[in-house]
Amino acid sequence: MKKNSKRYKLILKNTIKDKKISAKEALEFVKKNSTTKFDESIDVSLNINLKQTKGGDFSLRTVVNLPNGSGKKNKIAVLCEADKIDEAKKAGADVVGSDDLIEKIAARKFNFTKLICTPGMMGKIGKHGKVLGPKGLMPNPKLGTVATDLTKAIKDIKTGLVEIRSDKDGNLASTIGRKSFSTEKLLDNYNHFIESVKKEKPDTIKGEFIRNTFLTSTMGISYKVGAK
């Protein structure tokens, strides 16, 4: 049986059972518990109501642009026409290509974490969806990864655009920053994230959309959040 580390045992002393606390309190506990040497991710987890009064069950997949950024560093690849390659490079793309990048994708050589594609190249990348899809790399207009304005698309991802997607049970999670962020910046990101999710509620779903909310860090314990 695996034993808990001394660090984790100390964190467990800060556990709060069967009680909801404010987001600010939760973030303060989460930051206090982030005692590792690396800059831990601060994460929010939600359980949302998927049951609609009409039609099939709802599923949520969208993006949220965090006002203070996510702190996550993505390696961005851009698939575009040859005359747009210089624009993508100047905008800060890490990998840029046209047919040559498609060949690398076909060979399953993925040295990037996000893929942006121009509309004109979507026809060529479509057949590789079975490879890109499971890795979360398939470009999608709703997620800001199919774009004509490459400069804006690259900037959005680099400065805090995070993708969220619910599973079949209504669970979804996202980073809202790093432990090095101030509590105020994390709280700002958290509030913006929650309000963004609430705006996605369909009219066909009655009652509370967000059922439960938790905050935690990469190596910490979670806290159930109630009022702000």
Write the layout of secondary structure elements.
Elements: H1 6-12, H2 23-33, E1 41-48, E2 61-65, E3 76-79, H3 85-90, E4 95-97, H4 99-106, E5 114-117, H5 122-125, H6 129-132, H7 150-159, E6 161-165, E7 171-178, H8 183-198, E8 210-217, E9 223-224
Parallel strand pairs: 3-4, 3-5
Antiparallel strand pairs: 1-7, 1-8, 2-6, 8-9
Helix pairs in contact: 2-8
CATH architecture of the largest domain: 2-Layer Sandwich
The strands making up the biggest β-sheet line up spatially as 7-1-8-9
Our count of helices gives 8
Strand content: 15-25%
- Uncertain runs are none
Mean pLDDT: 90
Which of globular, elongated, flat, extended, rod-shaped describes the shape?
Answer: globular
SSE string, helices as H and strands as E = HHEEEHEHEHHHEEHEE
Described by strand count, sense and barrel closure, the largest sheet is:
4 strands, antiparallel
- Distance between the first and last residues' Cα: 39 Å
The helix-and-strand class reads alpha/beta
Overall CATH class of the largest domain: Alpha Beta
Radius of gyration: 20 Å
Question: Do you know the CATH topology of the largest domain?
Answer: Ribulose 1,5 Bisphosphate Carboxylase/Oxygenase
Task: Tell me how many strands there are.
Answer: 9
